[in-house]
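User: quick one, sequence for these C-alpha cells?
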C-alpha cells in the first residue's frame, strides 16, 4: 500500500472511487435518490466534484497492488491553513489547472439529477456547522485547523487499511504544524476516527421542512498534541513524506439506525443492509 499526493492523472480513478463508494455514504443517497436512474449524469457530476477537489484542496490518494500493478483505491481531500501541498514536479493550483487543461476542468454540464432542496439544505447546514464547530472557535484562538473534507475508499478495497493510512497522513501533517485535525464523520468513518483518538464535539442535522428523511452528522476533533503523541508510536514511509505510523485505541462502536446513526427515515434501512454486507 502506498500513499501519495494526487495529480491530474488520478482524475479517472478518483471518479471511480467516488461512484463506487457513494451508495455506502448516506449523504449521497440522501441528496441523489434518483442517481441510479441517471448513471451517466451521476458519473459526470462525480467527475466534476473530483476536479474541484484537485483544484482547491490537498488531495492524497492510496494505491494498492492488484495484478502486479498499483491502482488508486481511495482518496482524501484536505483543507488547511498551511500552503497547499503539491506533488513534486506538478502544480495543481486552480489557475494552473484551468489554464493548462481547459477542456477537462472548465467544461461543466448543468446538473439535472438530485433532490435540489435537500442539496441546498446540505450545503447550507454544512457551511454553517463548519463555522460553528471549527472555523470560528479556532479563529478566536488565532490558529487554524486541518479539515478532512472527504475520505472515500472503493468498496472492493475497504477494511484493508486505506482509510487509516489517509487519515494518518493528515494527522501527521497537522501535528507538524501544531494544528488540530477536524472532520464531519460518515457512519463508515466514525469508528475509524474514534479509534484514532478523535473526540466528538457536537452534531448537526440536515432536514428539509416536511421531509421525513434527515442526516445527523457528528463533528470530531483530534488535538495536535494527541496526534503528535500517536505519531511517535512508530514510523512508516508514506509516499515521499516521512509519516509516522499511529497507534490506535478503542473508543466506541459504529451504530447505524434511527437512534444513533447518520441516515434516518425510510432510506436508513437500505443503508444498514448495504453496510451489513461489508461488516
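Assistant:
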Amino acid at each position: 500500500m502506498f500513499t501519495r499526493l494526487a495529480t491530474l492523472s488520478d482524475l479517472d480513478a478518483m471518479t471511480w472511487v467516488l461512484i463506487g463508494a457513494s451508495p455506502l455514504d448516506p449523504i449521497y443517497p440522501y441528496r441523489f435518490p434518483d442517481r441510479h436512474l441517471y448513471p451517466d449524469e451521476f458519473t459526470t457530476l462525480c467527475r466534476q466534484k473530483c476536479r474541484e477537489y484537485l483544484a482547491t484542496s490537498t488531495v492524497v490518494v492510496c494505491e494498492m497492488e492488484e495484478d502486479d500493478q498499483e491502482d488508486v483505491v481511495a482518496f482524501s481531500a484536505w483543507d488547511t491553513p498551511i500552503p497547499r501541498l503539491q506533488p513534486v514536479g506538478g502544480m495543481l493550483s486552480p489557475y494552473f489547472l484551468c489554464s493548462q487543461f481547459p477542456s477537462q476542468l472548465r467544461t461543466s454540464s448543468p446538473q439535472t439529477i438530485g433532490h435540489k432542496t435537500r442539496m441546498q439544505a446540505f450545503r447550507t447546514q454544512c457551511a454553517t456547522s463548519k463555522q460553528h464547530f471549527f472555523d470560528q472557535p479556532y479563529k478566536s484562538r488565532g490558529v487554524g485547523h486541518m479539515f478532512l473534507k472527504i475520505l472515500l475508499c472503493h468498496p472492493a478495497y475497504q477494511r484493508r487499511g486505506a482509510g487509516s493510512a489517509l487519515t494518518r497522513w493528515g494527522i501527521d501533517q497537522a501535528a507538524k504544524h501544531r494544528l488540530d485535525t477536524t472532520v464531519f464523520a460518515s457512519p463508515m468513518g466514525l469508528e475509524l476516527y474514534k479509534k484514532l483518538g478523535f473526540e466528538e464535539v457536537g452534531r448537526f442535522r440536515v432536514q428539509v421542512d416536511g421531509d421525513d428523511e434527515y442526516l445527523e452528522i457528528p463533528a470530531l476533533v483530534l488535538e495536535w498534541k494527541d496526534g503528535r503523541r500517536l505519531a511517535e508510536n512508530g514510523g512508516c514511509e508514506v509516499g515521499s513524506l516521512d509519516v509516522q505510523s499511529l497507534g490506535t485505541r478503542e473508543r466506541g462502536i459504529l451504530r447505524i439506525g434511527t437512534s444513533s446513526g447518520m441516515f434516518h427515515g425510510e432510506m436508513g434501512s437500505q443503508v444498514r443492509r448495504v453496510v451489513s454486507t461489508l461488516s
